[in-house]
Hints:
The structure holds two protein chains of two kinds.
Chain A: E1 3-12, E2 22-32, E3 37-41, H1 48-56, E4 63-68, E5 71-72, E6 83-86, H2 98-107, H3 117-130, H4 146-158, E7 164-168, H5 176-193, E8 196-201, H6 204-210, E9 213-218, E10 221-226, H7 228-233, H8 238-243, E11 250-257, E12 260-263, E13 266-270, E14 277-283, E15 288-290, E16 296-306, E17 309-315, E18 324-329, E19 340-345, E20 350-354, E21 360-361
Helix pairs in contact in A: 2-3, 2-4, 3-4
Chain B: H1 2-35, E1 36-37, E2 48-49, H2 52-59, H3 61-94, H4 99-111, H5 114-125, H6 134-141, H7 154-182, H8 186-194, H9 199-227, H10 231-237, H11 241-244, H12 249-258, H13 265-293
Antiparallel strand pairs in B: 1-2
Helix pairs in contact in B: 1-13, 2-13, 3-7, 3-9, 3-12, 4-7, 5-10, 7-9, 9-13, 12-13
Amino acid sequence: MKVVLQHLTKKFPSRNKKGEDVIAVNDFDFEIPDGKLIGLLGPSGCGKSTTLNLISGLEKPTEGKILFGEDDVTALPPENRGVGLVFQNYALYPHMTVRQNILFPLQNLKGKDRPSKEEMEAKALEAARLVQIDKLMERKPGEMSGGQQQRVAIARALVKRPRVLLLDEPLSNLDARLRLQTREEIRRIQRETGITTIFVTHDQEEAMSISDMIVVMKDGVVQQIGKPQDVYDSPVNRFVAEFLGTPPINVFEGEVEGGQLLIGGESVLSVPGAPDGAVYAAVRPEGFQLDEAGAFSCALRQIEVMGRDTSIVFEHPARVSANLRAIIPSEDRPSGSPEHVRFRLKSAKVFLFDHTTQERIPFDAEA
Amino acid sequence: MENRNNRAWLYLLPAIAFLGVFMVYPLFDVLIYSVEEKFNFASQTFTGYGLYNYRYVLRDPYFLQAVKNTFILVIITVPLSTGLALLISLGLNSIKPLRKLYQTVFFLPYVTNTLAVGLVFMILFKKTAYSDGLINLLINAFGGQSVDFIDGPYWAKMLVMCLYTVWVVMPFKILILTSALASVNQDYYNAARVDGTSRWRIFTRITLPMISPMIFYLVITGFIGAFKAYSDEVAIFGTDLNVAGMNTIVGYVYDMLYGNSGGYPSYASAAALILFVIVFTITVINLMISRKNTL
């Protein structure tokens, strides 16, 4: 089922005395293709959870429309939309067993939609098998680990065969190891069922690793939509560039003069096609290449060897971001600990952003 | 280690001393009083040990009347007040404007003195030479006959008594239940809404189980409180409850000690112990049911 969001806007009445409405979601316009896994990504307070609530029907949009396929569901209450929703804290009913929790949505059905008892049991078991908790049917949520509870919550959301599956911060309550495992699990379940799935996260790594597409939001406004790698390789503005990637991108004060990028007065890269003026120059950690003859020189702070890669923490007078860090293959790492190192910059990993609008300034990358 | 143990006992000493003198010793004393036959308070003499006091109390029509009154009161007021409190709390929980005002209004009886409330009920229900009382005026307005609620038929008096008790005990229950309802995570309700759960099913399958520990707490303390009712009866019917036929078990105990026919600590002790056994049994049953039904 494809999900179409048309100029979706949600305003909340203000709580302060000024009386200005808080715009949680501002003119969200996007068509989510059928059967895809979409990650809604952004810092807390960016409106991603509100967007999810609008799609589920728990919140009514101030303006705009929501379509599932060809059906306009904007005015429908949540129960008539055919959505499955997994809450951040799972919201499993603590006094019911796993079986009762999974059966609960089915037992709500009335009239001819209501399956027989045997059908319900079969459907619940099928959903439980899908998430591999069919051996734990008689447990209560309190007797299970966080990861198992998460699976029960997904099974409960899937048992009615929803048209759209929505997950709110599905991995945030899990420990690091379980998080890796569960995100693969979510990917597998989504592939097996083919249900259009939208999940919300503030963790860019999580979103990048399993999504078919990611939507980066900030202050209620969609910044960029695209395949994870495309967004990473070609951010539209400084916010997206800084939000995606661990370790984060390195930002410097720079200037373009006659097709040359100057950082701290030194010409470090040729950027043909970029207009003259002050810019923010952002370099991905992997965009540095150790080179004795490199144009970019900086003071070395620390070398951290992390097995395959080595991370070089350095200092530069034109620094804007809190830390500067380059990632290079361990075999290339400098011997000893020199006071200064020189890098050559890979132009595909360097982005220029306008000093005032923060928008990306394109330039022709060198061959 | 020995030293530490001694220190611990030292710290506990004040509490143990007070509890021992004012709780444990009197309890045993009551037990002893209740089996001393023909005890004379003035001369502190008795003829022997036996169960005569219990036999006397259990055959005393005043005691049997008190037991009947107490049981009627308990059986009517505990479920009624808890149920009404639940309804009002659900109402309070689902309105936004004026919620604070209503909460205050519903809590007022709790901070009002028992005797003051009794006075209000007298004005509402009492029939005097000058006025039949507000309730009777209402009954007359609907074409009914005046009823003497304070000195009239038994059912009328019991009705007033039950109304009074329900009204007095409800505020505390509303207070507890509104906070219990407010503490249920909103996500459960959102999850139920997404799954298309009807309001009735949300109430019976989610809300009730979630607040059931608090309901059981209220039922158990409600039972105990209602069995120990006395001052409320005095507030409405005056001190001579036996004559009014509205005595309770605690009232009977008091009368045996200090009332017109007072000076019988043995009978009072026997009645008090019978009350203790009743309350204890019912509380154990309550606890067993609540264990079975909570998480």
